[in-house]
Amino acid sequence: MSTHAHRSRIPHVPTARPRRSKAVAGALAAACALLLAATGCAATASTASTAAAEPAAPAAAHTSAAPRPAAPAVPEPAALAGAKVNVGEGATVGVGMPISVTFPRPVPRAERAAVEHWLGVDARPAVTGAWSWVKDRNLLDGQRVDYRPPAYWKPGTRVTLRVGSHAVRHFSIGRSLTATVDVRTHTMTVTEDGRPDTRIPVTAGRPGLDTWNGTMVVMDKQPRVYMDSRTVGLGDAYHGYYAWAVHTTTSGTYVHQNPAANTHAGRANVTHGCVGLATDGTAERFYRRVIPGDVIRVTGSKDTVEPGNGYGDWNLTWSEWLAHSATRHGGDGR
């Protein structure tokens, strides 16, 4: 299920785990097809309706009549006309969700500063944030730029994104929820609004197919996803539908229901890279509790997930984040 950006892994099946990689199903299937070739817990199809996926694949930013601030002095880059945004209009997301804007073609380095100037973020209360160019696992360099503050968003923040003269998006930050997986103790601790309130037994990636270490963000979730190890070169290790799948990396890492967790959760790591939860209602309860943008942290594992493998942005320090900005500085989101 989970896969390193530089190798394919697939956590999650009842037994051993290939390198992580499972493509998302349903609405995300096309985007995930590229991922499956290089990951572990591969998700290739789903019986869930597209309405069940949360959220669907990024859509082109839509227009709005909201007022715009004065235009930057530099000419507006043509690339903004075809830009897509990862957060839907009116959405409520978790505190870890970056704003991610992708382009149909790579933006030349000479135009990237202008793109940043024309991407306006207005946050209430105001935050200091910055754009940074991220090498997406499935895209070319220059096709993705993300915005985040130095630390997670404050719950209740209302954000407006302006994509040049073309579109505007409004969204809100919900409550704060972080789920911390300790692969050494085989447990996941859920903390909401600063208070740890749930400790869940889990089974993570077995040795050699370790679950990604570091900070990930819930990309989307689906009640039922088809995962096939053959898509990542793992033979017939596993293939079938898995329920209550919370998607955390484009390489195929999920937190999901896994029958193997009924025996091994809290005791041993036996998956192909995903985080497995028991079938006694544990997986469904976690699924229903989380929303896109919630934070999943894995500790005690090995390789740290790359920034462009899903929303791994928080694995960079603030100075590292600014180093990948064309304007090299943060600004007030207000």
Estimated helix fraction: 10-25%
Write down the CATH topology of the largest domain: L,D-transpeptidase catalytic domain-like
Q: What is the helix/strand order?
A: HEEEEEHEEEEEEEEEEEEHEHEHE
- How much of the residues is beta strand, in percent? 25-35%
Name the CATH class of the largest domain: Mainly Beta
Q: Biggest sheet, strands in spatial order?
A: 2-3-5-8-7-20
Structural class: mainly beta
Total domain modules: 2
Spatial separation of the terminal alpha carbons? 39 Å
Radius of gyration: 19 Å
Mean pLDDT: 84
> Low-confidence spans: pLDDT under 50, at least 5 residues?
1-40, 44-57, 59-67
CATH architecture of the largest domain: Beta Barrel
By CATH's scheme, which homologous superfamily of the largest domain applies?
A: L,D-transpeptidase catalytic domain-like
Please describe the biggest sheet, giving its number of strands, its sense, and whether it closes into a barrel. 6 strands, antiparallel
| Count of distinct strands | 20
Number of H/I helices:
5
Question: Which word captures the global form?
Answer: globular
